[in-house]
Amino acid sequence: MQRPESWNQHLITIGSTEVTVGLVIAVAIVVIVTLVLAWLAKRMTLRHFERHGVKDDLSATTAASLVAAAVVIFGLDIVLHIFGIGLTSLLAAGGVFALAAGFAAKDVVANFLAGIILRLDRTISPGDLVQMDDRWLEIQQIGVRSTTGRTVQDEQILIPNSKLAQSVVTNLTREDKLVLIRATLPVDLASDVELVERVLQEAVESLDWVSSQGKSAVLLSEINRSSMEFRVAVWIDDPDAIYESRAKLNKALWSALTRAGVSVG
The domain 124-173 is classified under which CATH number: 2.30.30.60, 1.10.3720.10, 3.30.2350.10, 3.10.20.740? Predict the structure, then answer.
């Protein structure tokens, strides 16, 4: 089938490329197909996130937009190739700027990709109670660049997604909610070691808020020139009461040693 003679009609010249009616029609077809494919790619990406439990989330929308943008860039490359312009040459011309922009956007891109991985992997989800860098917090939202969490002191903090993805995180919601509480007590060097151990053990056993699922421990951890250091560890099953429980533990141990006539400090 021959093309109509009018398709060969010359319109303008771009560089060494003669733009004809047929060339304009070909470019229009490529543009329409590219836009349709970009729309389909965005829809498929959003549905993929929905199947993984992410609905109307900013990170899902952003990821879908980036996928659509990648399709548009591919179509743009085809259009430029039709006109005899290479996309690589344009990128090379702005190479220095692109390199500087890449360094500037490195952390942004890392946080964005980490956010997508966290949402798809689902090892950490909103509502989970986690421990990170000796800090307990409840995950509230995993955003595009950062994750919002609330500490046991009711403080709201922002954690970069890349840090959350690369750090060692204990997720209590995944298994159990047992939390280890520790206390350190220096006692006089002249104190009876067995007496101190017995008093501390009895004090721990008398605490009704200590969890029976974990084993408590009373240990002589260090001996200095003027004192001995005992460490006590107990388990609780209420992560929200960490600081309150630690205060109650210190008070109970100090009171027990004082009643037994052991000098603390």
Answer: 2.30.30.60
* Overall pTM > 0.90: no
pLDDT tens readout for residues 26-68: 778 888 888 888 888 888 877 776 766 555 466 667 677 777 7
The closest alpha carbon to 46, from 29, 26, 68, belongs to: 68
Distance CA 113, CA 40 (A): 22
Domain boundaries, the chain: 5-93, 124-173, 179-259
| Radius of gyration from C-alpha coordinates of the chain | 32
| Six-digit token string for 216 | 């408590």
Distance of CA 127 to the CA centre of its chain: 14
Q: What angle do CA 107, 110, 112 make, to 5 degrees?
A: 110
264 contacts 185 by C-beta, under 8 angstroms: yes
Using left for φ > 0, alpha for ψ between -120 and 50, and beta otherwise, residue 44 falls in alpha
Reduced to 3 DSSP states, what percent helix, strand and coil does the chain have, rounded to the nearest 5?
50, 25, 25
Number of Cβ within 10 Å of residue 209's Cβ equals 13
Beta-bridge partner residues of 170: 131
